[in-house]
Every structure is written in structure tokens, then in C-alpha cells.
Automatic annotation (TrEMBL):
Dimerizes in the presence of ATP but not ADP; ATP-binding is required for double-stranded (ds)DNA-binding. Interacts with DnaA. This is Sporulation initiation inhibitor protein Soj. Belongs to the ParA family. InterPro entries: AAA_dom (IPR025669), DNA_Partitioning_ATPase (IPR050678), P-loop_NTPase (IPR027417). It catalyses: ATP + H2O = ADP + phosphate + H(+). Residues 1-178 form the AAA domain. It comes from the Bacteria. Transmembrane segments: none annotated. It holds the Pfam family AAA_31. It comes from Anaerococcus porci. Residues 261-309 are annotated as: Disordered.
Length: 309
């Protein structure tokens, strides 16, 4: 099971839209997906068809109630599973401050460990800020997807975003990787969109997803109906883009898994070979020592015979 946070400390970049639609697309492709809405605004919760004002079992309550995690998970119409959020989650940040440093950063990790391997993938919607909630999400994650809008002001936030990522990686989560950078709100009629795409690709290189999310009216309409664009209008450009993204992500994860397996195999073979060489060297040393000992013993015997003679 892999855990991915959708993260950008800048708001309005397509973060929640990506969580809702990527989770739905992955579900449609046969994956069992759990979404954790860790944003107090709870837009992912409403985007997946729940009324946030009527949520009784939320991620916030999960921190305090002693109940089985299954009771907090909702199966959505869109196919994904969801642990919903509520506005009260914003108060958790204040409460976390009173805990020791390790505990305040690993509360969400503890919950995810309890869930275990019941899902193929967990997707976390982070708040659009770098507070303790976002840090909890990042510590609990294996990797992050960074949505970036293809507009001028997006470029201004890229260096700040990378400084944040490097800071987190060096001080909080050493093995946190960038799963990919997702270009959102692409307008093929606009020259600036192409310029931003090239700029982002020159910065992030192979980490940029091949799939780009276009500006699309159906993508904009779907949340008001509490649906993903895939359920709202599967034939729309927005729906097709997220289905393509889901396929690309699945292939990337398969490739990554294969590379890790090959690395483990090669490491195991190398250790085995080194162990074999070491044992051979050890046996040779033992043999040489025995020969030397026998020679010393024979020399003593020869000396004794010579003295007797």
C-alpha cells in the first residue's frame, strides 16, 4: 500500500479537484482507493457527495474516539472510500502544539498504520498551507503529487514550494519523494500556458506527468453536484484527462515497484557473493594457518631428530 499526499501550499491550483477525480479514476480502473480529507475546509468531502455539516464520523473525531477505523470510512458514489473532514479539524492544529515533537507530527501516521493494507492506495488532501496538519500528512506519506496551474503566478511559487519540500525532506521526512508534478488548468489557446509548461518541465524534468489537466467547464460544474467529473460527465475532456492520469500513475508505481525489486535482488546477490568471497578467503586463511602450523610442528620434529643424532 502506498500513501500519496496532494500538496501545494498555494491555494487555487487544482488540489482538491485532483484528489476527487484522481481517486475516482483509479477506482474506475479497479483500484481500491481511500481518500483522507485532511483539509478543514472539507471541499473533498463535499466533492465526493457528502454534506460536511452532517458528517458524524470524521478524521477529526478519529483522533479522539476509541472506535474501529472501519466506522469512519464511507463508500462514495464515485467508487472511492473516504474518511471525511469537518471544519472542527482546524482546531486540531492548536491541540497538536501541546504534544511532544514526535507525537505531534505522527498522529496521522498512527491512524494509517491502523488501517494497514486494506487499500491499494491512500490519497490525502492537504490544507493549502504549511502547518502541523500538512506536516502530519507529509510525514504519513511515501510521496507527494504537486499540482501547478499553468498560469504566470504559479511560477512565482515554484521555488518557494521546492524550498519547503527540501526543508521537510531534510528535517522531518527523509524518504519523502515527489511522485510527480501535475500541470492543471491548461489552456491550449493561450501562449502563456505553453511557456509555463516548458518552464515547469525545465525545473522538474522527468517528474512532470505527461498528462495535463485542461481548463474544462465540466470540471468546474461537477463539484456543485457533489460528484467527480468522471461520474458527472465521463466523456468530457476533464474526465478523460484524469483517467489518463490514473493510468499513468499506475504504470509509474508498477515501474517503481519493479525497480525496487530489482535493486533488492541485486543487493541480495551482491551480499551473497561478498559472503561467498569472504567464506572462501576465511577457508584459505584457515588452510594457510594449518599448513604453517604443520610446518612449524615438522620443523620442531626435524630439529629434535637432529639434536638426538
Amino acid at each position: 500500500m502506498k500513501t500519496i499526499s496532494i500538496f501545494n501550499q498555494k491555494g487555487g491550483v487544482g488540489k482538491t479537484t485532483t484528489v476527487v477525480n484522481l481517486a475516482t479514476a483509479l477506482s474506475k480502473l479497479g483500484k481500491k482507493i481511500l481518500v483522507i480529507d485532511f483539509d478543514p475546509q472539507a471541499n473533498t468531502t463535499t466533492g465526493l457527495g457528502l454534506d460536511k455539516s452532517k458528517v458524524e464520523k470524521s478524521i477529526y473525531k478519529m483522533f479522539y474516539e476509541e472506535d474501529s477505523f472501519e466506522n469512519y470510512i464511507v463508500k462514495t458514489e464515485d467508487g472511492a472510500y473516504l474518511i471525511p473532514s469537518e471544519n472542527a479539524l482546524s482546531g486540531l492544529e492548536v491541540e497538536l502544539v501541546s504534544l511532544d515533537e514526535r507525537e505531534r507530527l505522527t498522529m496521522l501516521s498512527s491512524i494509517i498504520k491502523e488501517i494497514g493494507d486494506d487499500f491499494d492506495l491512500i490519497i490525502i488532501d492537504c490544507p493549502p498551507s504549511l502547518g502541523l496538519l500538512s506536516l502530519n500528512a507529509l510525514v504519513a506519506s511515501d510521496s507527494i503529487i504537486i499540482p501547478i496551474q499553468t498560469e504566470y503566478y504559479a511560477l512565482e511559487g515554484v521555488s518557494e514550494l521546492m524550498n519547503t519540500y527540501k526543508s521537510i525532506k531534510s528535517s522531518v521526512k527523509e524518504d519523502l519523494e515527489i511522485e510527480g508534478v501535475l500541470l492543471c488548468m491548461f489552456d491550449g489557446r493561450c501562449k502563456l500556458s505553453y511557456e509555463v509548461v516548458e518552464e515547469v518541465k525545465s525545473y522538474f524534468k522527468s517528474k512532470v506527468f505527461k498528462t495535463m489537466i485542461p481548463r474544462n467547464i465540466k470540471l468546474a460544474e461537477a463539484p456543485s453536484y457533489g460528484k467527480s467529473v468522471i461520474v458527472y460527465d465521463e466523456k468530457s475532456k476533464g474526465a478523460r484527462a484524469y483517467l489518463n492520469l490514473a493510468s499513468e500513475l499506475i504504470e509509474n508505481i508498477k515501474k517503481e515497484s519493479k525497480e525496487k525489486e530489482n535493486f533488492k535482488k541485486k543487493t541480495k546477490e551482491k551480499i551473497s557473493e561478498e559472503s561467498k568471497d569472504y567464506n572462501q578467503e576465511l577457508r584459505k586463511d584457515e588452510k594457510d594457518k594449518k599448513l604453517q602450523k604443520d610446518e612449524e610442528k615438522n620443523q620442531v620434529i626435524r630439529n629434535d631428530e637432529k639434536n638426538i643424532g
